[in-house]
Amino acid sequence: MSLNNPTVCVLGCGTMGVAILSGIIDSIRDYESSNSETSFAPREFIACVSQEESAQRLARVFDDARLKIFTGKNVEGAAQATVILLCSKPQTAKNILTEDGMFKALENKLLISILAGVQIEQLKEWLPGSTKIIRAMPNTCCRVREGMTVLSCQTSIGTEEKAFASWVFSALGRSRFLDEKHLDAVTGLSGSGPAFACVVLEALADGGVMMGLPRDVALELAAQALQGAARMVLQTGKHPAEIKDSVTTPAGCTIAGLLTMEDGKIRSTLARTIQEATKVASTLGNVQSK
């Protein structure tokens, strides 16, 4: 199996499937506009969906000659590809992977699964022994190439397969490999994190509106404040508490606001949020559709 300019088939093009496709295609266009090359850049994409309505939606979203859209033809799409991105709902994994003809279609292929809670050992039960499996947990921010993806695989996976997966998701933001035992917590924190961050963002903006700011201005200020703080942590390596303390002057407005947050138990609430999301993530692969 060669991963030089492979054909990539996406099984399940919901929110995350579209986000990943969009990020990869935009990344390839950047390579092309700068006259750069990479052997990993897919030559063709196949998006597999179950309904004609979904196919029409994808056709409107994407305007790229490299993308083919198949409706109700998962096996055909997988057979034509070198790499399969499994982006369906976790509960449907078994049905998709055990469809008549799929076993043969996946022989000697690389399968990258983004399904929360579906472990590599489960996937191996439904796949040929020759299929290489990598689990990935991205988040929706891949759509704007600011995603965070954690990858995991068994020791038998070769360097080229790992490098390809890293290339795909690094093009969509940041990526790193971790042991599979951490992926449920990754799902709760990073996978669900953008939703939790948006609640915080919305609440901050509401506070600005309460104090007289126009809604659009409040949203812009809150979003940029969160983005800037996050970039400071990632780029400087400083602990968030250090950055917080650097803008907290004695008897100032920041410490007044921070104490109000502490009164509302925001730390424990957010931490427990990740705990509960992780618990649910660990169960998502347990029940498969019949």
Overall pLDDT: 92
Strand content: 5-15%
Task: Tell me the helix content.
Answer: 40-55%
Widest sheet: strand ordering: 3-2-1-4-5-6-7-8
List the helices and strands in order.
Answer: EHEHEHEHHEHEEHEHHHHHH
The description of the largest β-sheet is: 8 strands, mixed
Could you explain how this protein is built, in words?
With 290 residues, the chain is of the alpha/beta class. It has helices at 15-33, 52-61, 74-79, 93-97, 102-105, 120-126, 159-170, 183-191, 193-210, 215-236, 240-246, 253-263, 266-281; strands at residues 7-11, 44-49, 67-71, 83-86, 110-113, 132-137, 147-153, 173-177. An 8-stranded mixed β-sheet has the order 3-2-1-4-5-6-7-8, with helices on both faces. α8 (183-191) crosses α13 (266-281) and α9 (193-210) packs across α10 (215-236). The protein is globular and about 70 Å long.
Summed up:
The chain has 290 residues and is of the alpha/beta class.
Question: Secondary structure elements and their pairing?
Answer:
Layout: E1 7-11, H1 15-33, E2 44-49, H2 52-61, E3 67-71, H3 74-79, E4 83-86, H4 93-97, H5 102-105, E5 110-113, H6 120-126, E6 132-137, E7 147-153, H7 159-170, E8 173-177, H8 183-191, H9 193-210, H10 215-236, H11 240-246, H12 253-263, H13 266-281
Characteristic terms for this protein:
13 helices; alpha/beta; eight-stranded mixed sheet; 290 residues; 50% helix; 8 strands
